[in-house]
Amino acid sequence: MHHLSHTWRHLRRSPFQSIIALLTMTVSFFILTSFVFFNSGLNSVLNHFNTKPEITIFLKDGLDKPTLEAAQNEIATIPDIREVRYVSKEKALELYKELNKNNPLLTEMVTASILPASFEVSAYNPKVLEAVAQKFTAKTTLVDEIVYQKDLIESLMGWTNMLKNFAIVTISFFGLVAFFVTSAVIGLKITNRKDEINTSRLLGASLFYVKKPFLMEGIIYGVFGSTVGYLATLSIIIYFKAKLNTFFSPAIFVSNDPVFFLTWFLVELSIGFVVGLGTSFVVSKRYIKW
């Protein structure tokens, strides 16, 4: 308790310096949390499309059952294929009527005979779909047309990779800024209290004893910054949750799992603790050598 009150006096003696360090930490963790949530959302959208039929192979009319089974088995044996589902003409008609149930004019003249049978193919790895599309495009006696969501999948993968690369650069930059600003603030405070520290050492105080208030100050910066940065981002995400999930529907962009949010809060709290303690330790070791 004594060291906490001592640390609190350190913060109050230099309020503007303390505020600068706290704001820097908060902004850094705000950016980190934002990237975590948006990356999670994009991955959720990408995973949603990975589990849906991403290639629809429309088949020629008049194919016999052995030919269909052979084609289905050929697709299923390709590595990373998740599922190959055969949609008959009758099933295609059911899906068509369900899709256009609010517009009876579009369903009156449509029969199963004019709709093609198809294979709906989904994969664990979206990159394998390109190979499937190329392979079956050449089978002109079997395949009538292939519908491939290539542009959408590639766009999502591109956005996810770009976000990750941008996040690494941005978080690294602001992490360094937070480190140097916090180091400067704590180093300046140590310098201003050099006489007080020397007097304490002459009176028998241990090296750890005189460093401890500055170590605790660094921890306060890290824990406060990570908590406020996380809660600020979470508030914004929750506020726009309905709009984001509607925009990316049927995929869920913002998770409904409270464990996900709690886990990341604890992770960022730990990061804040380690960053604050590590920064103050390095600075105090540099400035307090006796």
Q: Any chance you could write out the topology, listing elements then pairs?
A:
Layout: H1 2-13, H2 15-50, E1 55-59, H3 65-76, E2 81-87, H4 89-99, E3 118-123, H5 128-137, E4 143-148, H6 150-192, H7 194-202, H8 207-239, H9 241-247, H10 258-287
Antiparallel strand pairs: 1-3, 1-4, 2-3
Domain ABC3 transporter permease C-terminal: 169-286
Keywords: Cell cycle, Cell division, Cell membrane, Membrane, Transmembrane, Transmembrane helix
Membrane topology: Multi-pass membrane protein
Folded structure, characterized:
The protein is built from ten helices and four strands. The chain has 290 residues and is an alpha+beta fold. The chain folds into two domains: 2-48 and 154-287, no CATH class; 55-148, Alpha-Beta Plaits, CATH 3.30.70. It has a four-stranded antiparallel beta sheet with strand order 2-3-1-4. α2 (15-50) packs antiparallel against α6, α2 crosses α8 (207-239) and α8 (207-239) runs antiparallel to α10. It is elongated and about 100 Å long. The two termini are 25 Å apart.
Features:
290 residues; elongated; single chain; membrane; 4 strands; Cell division protein FtsX; transmembrane helix; 4-stranded antiparallel sheet; cell cycle; 10 helices; 70% helix; 2 domains; 8% strand; Alpha-Beta Plaits; alpha+beta
Mean pLDDT: 83
Round the Cα radius of gyration to an integer and report it.
30 Å
Task: Report, as a whole number of angstroms, the end-to-end distance.
Answer: 25 Å
Number of helices: 10
- Fraction in beta strands: 5-15%
Structural class: alpha+beta
- What topology, given as strand order, has the largest sheet? 2-3-1-4
